[in-house]
Amino acid sequence: MTDKFLQKIYRVISEIKEELEKIDALVLELDNHHSARPENNFYLRAVASILHDFYCGAERIFIRIAEELNGGIPEGENWHIQLLKDMGLEIEKVRPSVISHDVSKRLREYLEFRHRFRNIYGFELEWEKMKGLRERLPVVVEEFKKEMKQFLKFMQGISKA
User: Fold this and answer.
1) Which of 56, 50, 55, 60 is nearest to 16 (CA)?
2) Would the N or C end of the chain have less CB density within 10 A of its end CB?
3) Residue 72: C-alpha distances to residues 3, 59, 98, 160 (Å)
4) Contact 122, 41 (CB under 8 A)
5) Structure confidence by residue, pLDDT tens digits, 135-152
6) pLDDT in tens, 53-96
7) Where do the domains of the chain lie, and which CATH numbers do they carry?
8) What's the pTM?
9) Any alpha helices (H) in the chain, and if so which ranges?
10) Is 95 helix (H, G, I), strand (E, B) or coil?
């Protein structure tokens, strides 16, 4: 393995770890305001922003993996959806799946929410459409982190080969 390739692997490992720390901070931020009332529009906007940021962080990880291991991010109008699907695929002789089908399915809900969040006004947010995502976030984050740690072990194995 070349030094340049190893440097890329080490950099991606560091970037993934940094994003996971930021995702932890999002969950902590949300937990610190669990008593706020969903009738408050500012609370809805804050929760929506955190849900949005969570998926953005996960997608940043996926983009880095795709750029360095998959040969690039998908192209086309639905590249976000395809990127998420790609992370659930094992690419023979390249990498194992990054996330399981189950985690991919859960993340798809956050991807769809992010799209909705970016395309409406904040005053149009509806608690009933966000409530489940907010309640499930800590569990989804833990599942995501667990699978990302497994992937990091694979990456660290590459760097030692």
Assistant:
1) 60
2) C
3) 21, 14, 15, 24
4) yes
5) 999 999 999 999 999 999
6) 999 999 999 999 999 998 899 999 999 999 999 999 999 988 99
7) 3-160 (1.20.120)
8) 0.93
9) 3-31, 41-65, 79-87, 101-118, 127-160
10) strand
